[in-house]
Write a structure and sequence with these properties.
two-stranded antiparallel sheet, mainly alpha, membrane, flat
């Protein structure tokens, strides 16, 4: 049976990433602006490092890029709420909060690429099983 293993130092980094992500979202939920904003940096940085470290496996890379875009969108949305611009119109009926859709959709594009293009072209790859 094929097995994917994660080096211990990467697993520890992923676990720490979850702690930072939760602290960021707790700051957002409780409107603790300094906590929420400060936690963006380690959360996003670790997400980028994880994506970079998994670049050899397309399945991991695409999913980790989607997570990185998700954190970016989530962080932008949080900041727009903290600055009270989330409901302001950018143009027509589009608000600043709606701009978070850009990185959210980039994450979806990463996953669509993997599942609709890469995976079907590599059916015998261990990472698609």
């Amino acid at each position: 049976m094929a097995q994917y293993s994660i080096p211990l130092k990467y697993r520890k980094m992923e676990n720490l990433h979850i702690v930072f992500w939760l602290l960021k979202d707790i700051g957002w939920c409780l409107i603790w602006k300094p906590l929420g904003i400060v936690m963006i940096f380690p959360t996003l940085l670790i997400a980028i490092v994880i994506a970079y470290n998994t670049r050899q496996l397309m399945s991991e890379l695409c999913h980790n890029l989607a997570i990185t875009f998700w954190i970016s969108a989530n962080s932008y949305w949080m900041i727009s709420e903290f600055l009270h611009i989330d409901e302001l119109l950018v143009f027509s009926s589009v608000t600043y909060k709606h701009l978070a859709l850009i990185p959210f959709l980039l994450g979806v594009v990463c996953l669509l690429y993997y599942y609709l293009i890469w995976q079907p072209k590599h059916p015998d790859s261990l990472e698609t099983m």
